[in-house]
Amino acid sequence: MTEADRHQVAIIGAGPAGLAAAAALRAKGVRPTVFERGDDVGSSWRRHYDRLHLHTVRWLSGLPGMAIPRAEGPWVSRDGVIRYLEAYTAYHGIDVRTGVTVEKVARAPEGWVLRSSLGDEHADAVIVATGYNHTPVLPDVPGIDDYTGELLHASDYRNGRPYAGKDVLVVGPGNTGAEIAVDLVEHGAGRVRLAVRTPPYLLRRALGPIPTQLTGVALRRVPAAIADRLAEIGRKFQVPDLSDKGLPDPGPGLVTRARRGQIPILDVGLIDAVRVGKVEPVAALAGFDGEAVRLTDGSVLTPDAVIIAAGYRRGLEDLVGHLGVLDARGHPRVHGRTTRPDAPGLHFIGYTNPLSGMFREIAIDAKRIASSVSASAVTTA
After folding, report:
1. Domain shared by 278 and 143, yes or no
2. Domain extent for 111
3. H/E element holding 220?
4. DSSP code of 62?
């Protein structure tokens, strides 16, 4: 192998995290190579449902070295994100090799080797950026394999047009489930029910011109107990009591929940839809029985379709699981500029979903990784 066959830094994934890391590295004089299994940058964004917008405001969501254009509006659409990532790649001259699936990352005598669909690729450092919601999974509940009704994961949902006039059960009251439920209502679904296991922590996406994301930024370093109390004051002011509509008060604990990975719903219409009865909260999914759906309160439903808006894995086990860098949940043990002593030069980015905004934290982590990697490159040169 010659030096020409070796990459200084290899990045796996050409989504926001991988592209941000690449741009930050180029600003430090390092020329990384990005490997993307899809045919374009931002391939996961191209598969998202039509209605999707960032829940973080445009001016707090730009990646290093290029702001999101004002023309995309305050809440950037799915297509706006794709346009931005395409322009971002071109602006920074990022070397992206599309259609290349990296199957495994392994240690080499010097650095790392990426086992890919095109053969082995060698690199001094590797940045894994394959995405927070990489692998959709259906819930492990009785009868799901034999369910005779229409069942799909939210990753396969595009819009509510096919469900006009139909009875639809959405399972999972996270941001995806909430937005899909509202989308179904707006497309004329005959009945929309939302299966809820744990009462969600609801917040308005913004109060007037002030995005709720700013609260997350402000509370980022505040002790959780204090931050929870401050956030609860804001929630009580923003959100009406929906207990009589089937959504019990979740109680305090916004920041504590978020630090465990339980992100609040930033409302894009669910609150009003529940309040007027267009979306009906029901008990959690218990299982399936032929064409019927059973809920944990004993209710039995026969909807026209069930949409599972929950259940994703990071999907990193085959790629790096053998290296001891994942915890019991399959999440990276380290993140950002930090690497494990037994895996020097192996970084992870984009595997957190903080209150302050994923894109914002990706931008911060990208710069920190670039500083660490470039310093290491100088030290070993």
Report:
1. yes
2. 3-134+314-380
3. none
4. P
Last residue of a domain, one of 308, 332, 360: 308
How would you write the pLDDT of the chain (381 residues) with one tens digit per residue?
444 457 899 999 999 999 999 999 999 999 999 999 999 999 999 999 999 999 999 999 999 999 999 999 999 999 999 999 999 999 999 999 999 999 999 999 889 999 998 899 999 999 999 998 888 999 999 999 999 999 999 999 999 999 999 999 999 988 999 999 999 999 999 999 999 998 989 999 988 888 989 888 888 889 989 989 988 888 888 899 999 999 999 989 988 888 887 888 999 999 999 999 999 999 999 999 999 999 999 999 999 999 999 888 889 999 999 999 999 999 999 999 999 999 999 999 999 888 889 999 999 999 999 999 998 764 443
The structure's pTM equals 0.93
Together in a domain, 235 and 156: yes
Domain end position, chosen among 308, 324, 358: 308
Helical (H) or strand (E) element with 104: strand 102-107
Structure tokens at 143: 């009868």
Asked if residue 147 and residue 110 are part of one domain, the reply reads no
Distance of CA 307 to the CA centre of its chain: 18
CATH number at residue 200: 3.50.50.60
Judgement on whether residues 24 and 168 belong to the same structural domain of the protein: no
Question: What are the contacts of 140-143 at 24+ separation with CB within 8 A?
Answer: 141/285, 141/286, 141/287, 141/288, 142/286, 142/287, 142/288, 143/287, 143/288, 143/289, 143/290, 143/294
Measured distance CA(305)–CA(288) in Å, rounded:
12
